[in-house]
Structures are given as C-alpha cells and as structure tokens.
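Notes from the 1:1 (GR / supervisor)

We went over the backlog. Supervisor wanted to see one worked example end to end before approving the batch request, so GR pasted a single chain during the call. The sequence is below; no edits were made to it. Supervisor asked that the structure be written out right there so they could see what the output format looks like.
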Amino acid sequence: RLCINRFRLAVELACQQMGYELLRWIDDNQLKRLLGKEKVTLTRRVRDAQTGHETHVEEEHRLKIPDGYFWIDMGSAGQRHCFFELDNHSLTLRYSEPNPKDYAAKVRTLAAFYRSGRYQQLFPEAGDSMWLLTVTTGSQRRMANLKQTAENVLGQTRAADRYWFACMDDIPTWQQPFSTAVFEPIWQRAGQERWWRLDETI
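Structure output shown during the call:
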C-alpha cells in the first residue's frame, strides 16, 4: 500500500505543477466495493483429443480488480480515465493455477469488462476512455515482461494501446516533490516500442 500511496502522491503533485486537475481517485477498497460483484464472459478454445475438432466454450469469470482508478483533466491535452495496477514482484506472469495475482487474467478480464459495456455504465464520464497503467517496483526487464504478457493476451489489436507500463524508480516523490515525472516520457504502451508522455495527445 505504501507504493500505491506514493504513486497517488506523485500524480497529485505532478497535476499541481502542470496545472492539471485530478477530478477523481478511487482507492482499492472503494473499487472492490464498486466492482466486487462484476463478472465477465471469456471464450476458451477446447480441442477434442480424439477428433482434433475445436469448439469455443464461454465461461463466466470474476473481474480481477485493479489497485485504483483516477480521472485527470489535462486541459487541451484532454482527459485520462485510468485504472492503476502496482506490481511489487507479486504478480504472476506465467499461469500455473487460478490466483488473484495472475496478471494475464487481470488484463483478460479487464478487456472483457470494457467490451461488455459495463465499464461505460459504471463510469459514464469516461465514455470510451479506459487505460490500465501498470507500474512496477522492479527493473525495466520486469516492466518489459509485464508488457509482453499483456501483448500475448491482447494480440495485435487496437485495444493494446490502452495498456501502459512504467517503473516506480522513474517516479520520484519526496526526493523531488516538484517533479512532473509521471507526465514525462517514462511510459511504454503495449504493441509499441517508443516511450510516451502520459499527457501526450493521441
């Protein structure tokens, strides 16, 4: 939770420095109350061992809830409606058995939640805008592995653009209380290689 609070402080301080407005912040406890009963439908391919024939099976899954949600008004740069996920090396990148820290399942269920229309119903102010910002306390290699996991789930789709990644080490707070680092080009997007600013016009 300390790192989550640190990221929130970084966003708040950077918004003050940039003249942006943080309109809403929902912490993990509030988000669990809001989304705790949400379920999504996922499709899984099943191959018959004898015939080799494949069928698609629909399964209901609980939404894997991120660590927070916030809404920023950046003036001429537009608005950002973002879910936030902190990785402190606790997220599982390779699936072994169902667990709440399975990062691929978080990406998969959040993407299905968006496609279902429930996101727009619960966050009407967001319209079509939904991002997932994943920040890791690990190295850039760890960040690259998280990004690769998301890309494997999402494939070459436009939806991949919604998933952004950064390292916590690039977001100072109390060391540099007037830093705007959270809006600097420290972010990578799924499906792309260059570095992005969080307030970059897209």
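Supervisor's comment: Helices lie at 2-18, 28-35, 103-116, 118-122, 140-154.
Batch request approved.
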